[in-house]
Design goal:
Blueprint: E1 6-10, E2 19-24, E3 27-34, E4 37-42, E5 57-58, E6 63-65, E7 72-74, E8 80-82, E9 91-92, E10 94-97, E11 100-103
Antiparallel strand pairs: 1-11, 2-3, 3-4, 4-9, 5-6, 6-7, 7-8, 10-11
Length: about 110
C-alpha cells in the first residue's frame, strides 16, 4: 500500500472491453477497461447483493448488467441505470502506474 493506494493487478489482466475481478482487502471489485481507461466498482448489485462480474459488460456503452434481475450500471460512476436497482454501485478511485492498476478507498 502506498499513500492509501493498493495494487490490484497488472493492466494486461484487463484488456479493452474486458472485466476482471480483484480483491481490495475483503471487498471484491470488478475492474473494467473502457476505451483504455480503467474503472473499479464494488462487485455487488445494489438490488440483490449479486456479483456484477457474472453479467455482461458492454464495451460500447460502458455499462455492466446484473444477470440476476437485469439491473444496469454505468461503470464510470456506478450509477444505477435500470430498475430494479436504484442505488449506485460503489465506485473506487483508480490509477495506473508502471503497468499496474491501483485503487484506494472512495472519499
Amino acid at each position: 500500500m502506498s499513500g492509501g493506494w493498493t495494487v490490484l493487478c497488472p493492466t494486461s489482466d484487463v484488456l479493452p472491453g474486458e472485466s476482471h475481478v480483484a480483491w481490495f482487502g475483503d471487498v471484491p471489485l470488478v475492474i473494467v477497461n473502457f476505451d483504455g481507461i480503467f474503472y473499479a466498482l464494488e462487485d455487488r448489485c445494489t438490488h440483490e447483493d449479486f456479483e456484477l462480474s457474472a453479467g455482461p459488460y458492454d464495451q460500447a456503452t460502458g455499462q455492466i448488467e446484473c444477470v440476476l434481475h437485469g439491473a444496469l450500471f454505468d461503470v464510470r460512476s456506478g450509477e444505477a441505470l435500470r430498475a430494479p436497482a436504484y442505488e449506485p454501485a460503489r465506485p473506487y478511485p483508480v490509477k495506473v502506474e508502471d503497468g499496474m492498476i491501483w485503487v484506494r478507498e472512495p472519499d
